[in-house]
Amino acid sequence: MSAPITIQSFETLIVDLPTIRPHKLAMHTMHGQTLVILRIRCSDGIVGIGEATTIGGLAYAGESPESIKINIDTWFAPLLIGQDATNLNAAMQRVDRGIRGNTFARSGVETALLDAQGKRLGLPVAEVLGGRVRDGVEVAWTLASGDTGRDIDEAEQMLDRRRHRHFKLKIGAGDVARDIAHVAAIKKALGERASVRVDINQAWSEAVAISASRRLAEAGVELIEQPLSRFDRAGMARLNAHSPIPLMADEAIESVPDSFALAQLGVAPIFALKIAKTGGPRAVLRTAAIAEAAGIGLYGGTMLEGSVGTLASAHAFATLDKLEWHTELFGPLLLTEDILVEAPLYRDFQLMIPTTPGLGLELDEQRLARFARR
Ligand code: MUC
Ligand code: MG
């Protein structure tokens, strides 16, 4: 028998990139984005690439770029070095037995192993995952400049360029009446040419959300993402029973088991899938399967990853039977620089799924070196 192909080494880089404009969420305003890029070298010479990225340091989730890097270097790498690189089930079982939580770091590792396996087999990651049922995924854009007029201009440009026709508005940080007026003005300007959704990022109380959901429905908004604290599952279930427009669970889902509990409790008829929240492109499909079985609609979410994490998500989402609420895989478009030789292809409102082996990407070493933190 030939010698097994093993995992030989890990390399992690923190990469700081500028954004095209400030991006305002309820809990944090981004003035740049920090990616954690990972390379796993295997004994057959194949290098798998992964990404683990969050938003706003520790403002959004329990892992920061620095903790992701240190935990991959200190804990994930020693667990996996020397293991069979071709057996993802065994490798990730080892991770799950040795490491709690850390789904963002786990996602980067699972992504890199999938990229390596795809390159080894000569198959794109979507095909390693069983095969794509769509060649591209439609991509929403988030209007979050903080200014109504600027947001309307930005949406008009996106429609003209046929890049986006679903828009997500980030509200919740300010006064509720002003937030709703901002949303209503944007929906009125865009009319039937575009759909408008809102993401509250957990900022509202149940009392505020009850009346706001009615006013948002009147304004023509089609869904409300994570209005209440991720801990307030009972409140979400009550709100869901009364809201005239559907709710979407986002931050409430922090693991595959979470998604089962949330489905049982009926907190929302739509789930935002994110590879980072559930621990990778394979793990996110387990959450999708739970949602599908419970009759919950799917949305392909993002942690505003760069091109590597975005394409990893796209490969996974391309395999889903239904993706009724489309995706928001626009992370690379928020950055002024791409760290790939060839940037992901956005065309006709869609992100196209690469057809070459692995994730179907090549890192631009010069640009990576320029933006990597020293
Ligand atoms: C989130 O909460 O959904 C996704 C798009 C965006 O603008 O922010 C992220 C995070
Ligand atoms: Mg969200």
What does this structure look like?
The structure is a single chain. By secondary structure, this protein is an alpha/beta fold. It has 2 domains: 7-122 and 365-371, Enolase-like, domain 1 (2-Layer Sandwich), CATH 3.30.390; 128-352, Alpha-Beta Barrel (TIM Barrel). It has helices at residues 65-80, 88-98, 103-121, 125-128, 148-160, 176-190, 206-218, 233-242, 256-265, 275-278, 281-293, 307-317, 365-371; strands at residues 7-24, 29-42, 47-53, 136-138, 141-143, 166-170, 195-199, 224-225, 247-249, 270-273, 297-300, 346-347, 350-352. The chain has a 7-stranded parallel beta sheet with strand order 5-6-7-8-9-10-11. It is globular, with a radius of gyration of 20 Å. Residues 199, 201, 225-226, 250, 272 line the site of magnesium ion.
What is the CATH C level class of the largest domain, in words? Alpha Beta
- CATH arch. level architecture of the largest domain: Alpha-Beta Barrel
Please give the oligomerization state of what you see: single chain
How is the largest sheet built, in terms of strand order? 5-6-7-8-9-10-11
Q: Characterize the biggest β-sheet.
A: 7 strands, parallel
| Gross geometry | globular
> What is the gyration radius calculated from CA atoms?
20 Å
First-last Cα distance? 43 Å
Mean of all residue-level pLDDT scores: 97
Total domain units: 2
The total beta strand count reads 13
CATH superfamily of the largest domain: Enolase-like C-terminal domain
